[in-house]
Amino acid sequence: MTDVLPNHLITLDPQAQAQLFTEARTANTFTDTPVSDEQLHAIFDLAKYPPTAMNVQPLRVLFVRPGEGRDRLLTHVAEGNRTKTATAPVVAVLAADTNFHEHLDTVFPIRPGMREHFAADPTVRDGMARFNAGLQVGYFLLAIRAAGLAAGPMGGFDATGVDNEFFTDTGWKSLLLVNIGHPGPDAWHPRLPRLDYDTVVRHA
């Protein structure tokens, strides 16, 4: 438990505030309680709804369970992250699809011709994919917590190595690894300080 109290000015139920925000931590150990395919599907179905620019939805997810795929993934994970990644029930590789434009006729039909517009400019497409997938990463982490599971997001891995290992012949570019499961013993490090309102916020 933390000493952070849910904000009574927020209409979200205080228990949900705690689960999603004030009491949530990055998990570093996991139990062997399984995470079902149905839970993973429910997480995606929740995370897909918040906004992205032009509804591009470039986030792509590779779920890796223990086995041959996990062994391949671990070769690209930083040593300090390897043990917890090896023992998590599921690892999500979150990636940005730089070929998101292929779906624009479906997801953004109100502007015909945008698929061709982005097809002609790979540099702009890459930036848009990474920015909007980054937004969706945040939504995805909240969806994991909403499912009653713990998330362990990590940037300590060789993204190019992961891309070459799993995403050849695609436009997917890995952004983040997220261990997913039920927290195990001593799962949490002490919460580090957060910046306060007056340090972060200005009014114009």
Verbal overview:
The chain is of the alpha+beta class and 204 residues long. Helices cover 41% and strands 14% of the residues. It is built from nine helices and four strands. It has helices at residues 14-22, 37-47, 68-74, 79-87, 104-107, 114-119, 122-146, 159-166, 197-200, and strands at residues 59-64, 90-97, 150-154, 172-181. A four-stranded antiparallel sheet has the order 1-2-4-3. Helix 2 (37-47) crosses helix 7 (122-146). The mean pLDDT is 96.
Task: Tell me, briefly, the overall form.
Answer: globular
Average pLDDT reading: 96
Estimate the helix proportion, in percent.
40-55%
Give the SSE order as H and E letters.
HHEHHEHHHEHEH
Major β-sheet profile? 4 strands, antiparallel
What's the total count of β strands? 4
Class derived from helix and strand content: alpha+beta
Distance between the termini: 37 Å
Radius of gyration: 18 Å
Number of helices: 9
Poorly predicted spans:
none
Beta-strand proportion: 5-15%
Q: In what order do the strands lie side by side in the largest sheet?
A: 1-2-4-3
